[in-house]
Amino acid sequence: MPENPHVLKNRVVQSALERARVSAPVSALEAVSLVGDPMMPAIAGIAAGALESGCGVMLAGGTQMAAVLALMKGLGVPLAGVCIGTTTYVASDRTADLAGLVKQVSPKVPVLACDLHLEKSRKPGLQAFAKGFVKEGVGAGGTSIATILKTRKDGKKLLAEIERQYERSIERPT
Asked: Which residue in 10, 44, 73, 110 has the fewest CB atoms around it within 10 Å?
């Protein structure tokens, strides 16, 4: 949805909190166990392990990764070496305010954004993505940033590859 349904999201969270009978502040881990996505503690644990072994970590996604970052902080995981990688579509969505959410958790964690130039695509489905009808939810920005770093292709060259995969998977001949 191009317009972020905040009222609906708030109702869902409030209903979940009421069903869980949460009335007082709870720990980050308890909050996630009651009303969070099960992938959040898994990603937080994987990221913590990578950080402990000396690796840098890019959390690939948007506001959900800001929640993972908050969980990591709540669990006492040092956030040095962590960044969030997303698309410009998510980063520039004022209704989501990813940068503001991340700053509330830690002003030192950078948010990186990749411009995939989907608004210039020949494919209507990819253009719809650029208009906000699709929020990827699969770490497309982080994956694209990693691809650009590894291949030295820019977002425009990556668009041609994305369109080719779109043709193979979405527009495949019947």
From this structure: 10
Q: 44 with 71: CB under 8 angstroms?
A: yes
User: Mean pLDDT of all residues in the chain?
Assistant: 89
- Look at the chain and report how many structural domains it folds into: 1
The per-residue pLDDT for range 79-90, each reduced to its tens digit, is: 999 999 999 988
The sign of the dihedral angle between the CA atoms of 28, 30, 32, 38 is positive
Q: How big is the CA angle at 48 (ends 45 and 50), to the nearest 5 degrees?
A: 110
Token pair of 70 as six digits: 């908050």
Cα–chain-centroid distance for residue 3? 17
Which is nearest to 47 in space by CA: 83, 99, 98?
83
User: What's the CATH number where 115 sits?
Assistant: 3.40.50.10210
For 20-50, write each residue's pLDDT tens digit. Answer: 887 778 888 888 888 888 899 999 999 999 9
Q: Is residue 1 part of a domain?
A: no
Q: Is residue 147 part of a domain?
A: yes
- Its domain, for residue 140, covers 6-169
